[in-house]
Write a structure and sequence with these properties.
Chains A, B: This is Xaa-Pro peptidase family protein. 2 copies of one chain form a homodimer. Chain A folds into 2 domains: 145 residues, Creatine Amidinohydrolase, Chain A, domain 1 (3-Layer(aba) Sandwich); 216 residues, Alpha-Beta Complex (Creatine Amidinohydrolase), CATH 3.90.230. Chain A is built from 10 helices and 17 strands. Chain A has a 6-stranded mixed sheet, sandwiched between helices. In chain A, strands 7, 8, 9 and 10 form a 4-stranded antiparallel sheet that branches. In chain A, strand 2 and strand 3 form a beta hairpin. In chain A, helix 4 packs parallel to helix 5, helix 7 crosses helix 8 and helix 9 packs antiparallel against helix 10. The radius of gyration of chain A is 22 Å and the shape is globular. Chain A starts with 11 loop residues before the first helix and ends in a 12-residue tail after the last strand. At the A-B interface, helix 3, helix 5, helix 8 and strand 7 of A face helix 3, helix 5, helix 8 and strand 7 of B.
Amino acid sequence: MTLTSISRGFPEAEFVARTARAQTSMAHVGLDGILLMTEAEVQYFTGFQTLFWQSPTRPWFVYIPASGKPIAIIPEIGASLMQRSWLDDIRTWAAPAPDDDGISLLTDLLLSQSVVGVMKGHETQLRMPLGDWERLMAALPALEFKDATGLVQGLRMVKSEAEIEKIEHICAIGSETFAQVPQFARAGVPLDDVFREFRREALAQGADGAPYLVGASSQGGYADVISPPDTTPLTHGDVLMLDTGLVWDGYHCDFDRNWAIGKAHDAAKQAYDVLWRATQAGIEAARPGNTCRDLFDVMSRIIATLDDSGGDIGRLGHGLGLQLTEQPSHAAFDTTQLTENMVLTLEPSLSYGDGLMMVHEENIVVTQQGGRLLSTRAAVELPVI
Amino acid sequence: MTLTSISRGFPEAEFVARTARAQTSMAHVGLDGILLMTEAEVQYFTGFQTLFWQSPTRPWFVYIPASGKPIAIIPEIGASLMQRSWLDDIRTWAAPAPDDDGISLLTDLLLSQSVVGVMKGHETQLRMPLGDWERLMAALPALEFKDATGLVQGLRMVKSEAEIEKIEHICAIGSETFAQVPQFARAGVPLDDVFREFRREALAQGADGAPYLVGASSQGGYADVISPPDTTPLTHGDVLMLDTGLVWDGYHCDFDRNWAIGKAHDAAKQAYDVLWRATQAGIEAARPGNTCRDLFDVMSRIIATLDDSGGDIGRLGHGLGLQLTEQPSHAAFDTTQLTENMVLTLEPSLSYGDGLMMVHEENIVVTQQGGRLLSTRAAVELPVI
């Protein structure tokens, strides 16, 4: 472990500042409040951190009023944990209660409001039953719900120094874990054992969890980047790719590495070289004044020297933080202006050969001088195990 | 590892049968099809299994028509993996595409339909942007959407033999992992290190992942069951509880264990004994003819001998399978009839002492003879480490 002095949690000032920024933006666009119900948003404004979100049974709500602290409307099972947060107003019910899973508490809270924001745009989900949402709208006929996606995502995109420290910490753990891969990945080892060992190593290096690990290994390259592993042994001539999202104190890394097993084919070496240089161009371009589209363009131009198909991943990187993937997207459609302290992945990919593909990924923070690496830069040439 | 001969995936006949059962129910209630968009449901009908669901960026859709195979409407990045499924009709787009993330493909597909089911009831979420949902409804003004929650959850509640095998396999891995806890949990070890070692052990025992681990350790008992660990060392006189959801081939276990560190206080021993007996009563009552409410009642009666507050967890167990928690709920509100091959948790809990609580949990499958244990039964008395 590289950074043992880092502490968990945030001082209350962090949550005060986040809430104040939200309230300033709310005032600009005329919102009386914002109703939030998704894990990352609840955690962002309250510090409430639990794996219990994996159970879909119970909805959780936080309301950001025009002024003052956020208000929690949550199942009783979460009261004890939420009481350790900076919030004062915590309203609970004995969930699950299919007839009234927080709806009457929400109705009471929102009855006096006129215009309330909810997140209903790109990359959002309604983390409550649609039927309950319809009942809430019916119970509040005079209330106008407006989309607050851009407002909330805009706040979350730009990280505080404390957030960057946490992401840098888990990126360092990820880099150390990748550095150990040659110790347990070699010809003859089943791919699912490689995955298992990778996760065990990440935990040993200090990750709280290793929720995300995808990858592949096959002759000369791989055809798909989201699969679980099978039991096929690594074979001389394979290209192995592992892409991981590890987590520490709620914050993620998200990057990948490629290796050749025994021998690197020329086509794979060439693809690797193009992607390494595309990533490098992205790192250099990751400075205020440029946009996500600019990052997409500089990487795309280099990728196009080998593959001008546009690929099937739809973007060449994204935001990173409380979520494995968050806004913005490095894509032609995303003209988000880069600003200092955005934490981003650069994730160029290309197709080559007979249906093969390759992906590179690094994690950076935007600075005036371009991207500062949070992950340890991948080797210049495709490493051979 | 106890059961190494078990194989991953399902024969196509399993998906054919699941789809046929859905289509029979759809005909009964007059649905032309069901539109699904959540991980467990997509996996249930297609076998599509990927951790990529952790990225909230892209929506995924599967449509169950009145007859014939399901139809996938998914991001291009998933095409290669979905092509390995039993589906023939896979429609893709280059996601993310904020202006049209599958909406025009869905509109084309649903234009000829009259009444389509979606899941909008208890324990469901809308895993697509609410704004896109509103656009889809606006594009299909003649289409009636009906709630299909009960239909889909009803199918998923009753497991096939192949599903039960997978759950039994991961329960065995969980039991072996819990059996190792005394090797690494003892006075002086920080709680977060116990969590880390538990996860590493679960992977070593054969789990694909250890996504869910919550617990606590404090003097005489614990006050909360959903928290992440802190760095406080285990201390003589603590009660340690670990509650885990491990996963193998997409299926979960979900059970917990309690230990006393060094010495067991009388109050903790008494709470443990009551919960052990409550669980036993639940196991015996888990037979066809009884309801979830009956399970709740038999456990509640024993719990009430020590604590008649009703607790704050809201239920005393739930369904288990592709999700860590799924329908039904052992609660007064749930009159679901138990049938053979339902896989359930029994999870009695109680409050005692000064704000302390205790939870027990076992995993069972419903048989004519009562619950058959999938987890290795907890010790009769609170074990002391």
